[in-house]
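Dear H.,

Thanks for agreeing to be a second pair of eyes. The structure we're designing against is below in token form, covering all 378 positions.
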């Protein structure tokens, strides 16, 4: 009867052991009946193969059997975003949690809940926007009616507190064009707005709130003055390289007054404009680059707003309201440059938190038009 083959005499098995389980394989090599020289040669060759293959094998095993660290991070970041009220961000994090992660089911549940909260938030934001924009249109209709192009800029904002009665007001700079296409501006008197419209546009002093071009392309999202009508429009200027090698917008000589009319005390860089044009135009409000400490290139707290209106009343009378809205719980939503969502959420948050300090009167909820001053750019 033939004797049973020893395991270390199985060439295929020994090859596998030497490459993937070298310590066992080398034991088999030295148990085999062969010359010491061959045993040393096989051991060295097996060791060289093993140190090359083993790390790869280990990585594969880790990937297959150990849950991804990325899933853990996505789950934790999702929880942080959810708790901070940044629901869309939370949804995106939860989506990237893998099925083999121990809290996958919880991530799926929280993703659905975050999506529901985000959708509700967007519906509320849309209602805020519609009401606020409707007031702007009513206030400015006697001037912009049947006129294109036009730009409605929030020139200033103010609130007047008398006992338990608070009146909220806006002042607008409206840019139109005369019969030969020369831009000119009209400055309205103060106009009463509701607390909703006031808070919705609380970060937008110095910004264009609504505009339209000659071809009836309209914008109802806040943007830096002229970005929708004049900057980037080759009828009024062109991109030029300045002394530092950066492309900046230069108005033609006969339209040079637009820099002052639009409040530009700094160059308009092509990179900023293209950021607006490709990433924000028609989608969400744009406040330019972040300057740190909650400030951006454009909007209420910017140097641009001061340049547009050096005697801005908002700075002295409403700053505490801005601070209140900026410190509310919903500030944790995306910075107000990134979307209408964050700006309104912060403002609506301030409205509720400040009710004990500022009460809203029925008189503040009316809108009216009163004639204003006009200056020509000719």
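And this is the sequence the design step returned. I haven't edited it by hand at all.
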């Amino acid at each position: 009867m033939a004797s049973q083959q020893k395991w270390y005499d199985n060439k295929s098995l020994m090859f596998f052991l030497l490459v993937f389980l070298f310590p066992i394989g080398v034991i088999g090599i030295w148990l085999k009946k062969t010359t010491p020289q061959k045993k040393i040669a096989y051991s060295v060759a097996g060791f060289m193969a093993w140190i090359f293959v083993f790390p790869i094998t280990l990585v594969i095993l880790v990937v297959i059997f150990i849950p991804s660290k990325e899933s853990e991070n996505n789950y934790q970041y999702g929880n942080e975003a959810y708790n901070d009220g940044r629901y869309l961000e939370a949804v995106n994090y939860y989506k990237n949690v893998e099925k083999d992660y121990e809290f996958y089911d919880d991530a799926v549940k929280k993703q659905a809940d975050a999506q529901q909260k985000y959708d509700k938030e967007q519906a509320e934001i849309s209602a805020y926007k519609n009401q606020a924009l409707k007031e702007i249109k009513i206030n400015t209709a006697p001037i912009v009616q049947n006129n294109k192009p036009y730009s409605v800029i929030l020139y200033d904002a103010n609130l007047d507190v008398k006992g338990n009665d608070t009146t909220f007001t806006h002042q607008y700079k409206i840019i139109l064009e005369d019969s030969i296409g020369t831009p000119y501006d009209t400055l309205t008197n103060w106009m009463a707005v509701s607390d909703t419209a006031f808070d919705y546009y609380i970060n937008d002093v110095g910004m264009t709130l609504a505009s339209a071009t000659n071809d009836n392309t309209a914008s109802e999202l806040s943007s830096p003055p002229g970005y929708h009508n004049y900057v980037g429009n080759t009828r009024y200027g062109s991109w030029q390289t300045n002394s530092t090698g950066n492309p900046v917008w230069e108005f033609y000589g006969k339209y040079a007054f637009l820099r002052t009319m639009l409040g530009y005390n700094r160059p308009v860089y092509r990179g900023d404009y293209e950021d607006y044009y490709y990433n924000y135009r028609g989608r969400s409000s744009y406040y330019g680059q972040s300057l740190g400490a909650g400030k951006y290139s454009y909007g209420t707290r910017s140097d641009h707003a001061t340049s547009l209106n050096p005697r801005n009343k908002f700075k002295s009378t409403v700053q505490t309201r801005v601070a209140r809205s900026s410190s509310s719980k919903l500030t944790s939503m995306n910075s107000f440059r990134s979307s209408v969502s964050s700006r309104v959420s912060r403002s609506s948050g301030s409205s509720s938190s400040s009710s004990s300090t500022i009460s809203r009167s029925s008189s503040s909820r009316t809108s009216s038009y009163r004639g204003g001053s006009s200056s020509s750019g000719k």
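Two observations from my side: Confidence is low (pLDDT under 50) at residues 326-378. The longest helix spans residues 104-144.

Warmly,
E.
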